[in-house]
Amino acid sequence: MSDALEQRSITDGQWVLMPAEEAQTQTPAQGKSPLLWFLVWAGEQDCPPSITQACLRLHKDPPAWPGVSMVFQTQPTPGFVLRIQAEWSPKTTAQEQALFEKLIWEINRAKGLA
Length: 114
Fold this sequence. Notes:
The chain is of the alpha+beta class and 114 residues long. The chain is built from 4 helices and 5 strands. The longest helix has 19 residues, at 93-111.
């Protein structure tokens, strides 16, 4: 992972939110293209089945966020690929942190903890 991406990643010790490298290299002409973000399981232990099931529920019935699509993948590492329209993509560290917290909240809600 590049230094710029490491600086932009947010983690809680289990999940890591980071922009895809392609999002860093878009030209102004591509600015309206969806930006890719990843929310990836990075816990020391394997992702618990209850969290995987919650993520699969979110994949099947994602939150209705404008400009955002979510796809969950179990392999090679459990996580979401987020496609966020440029106008909805986080532009500050505070917005990135808010996105991370909202994603974790949604996973916990799908798990029945929120």
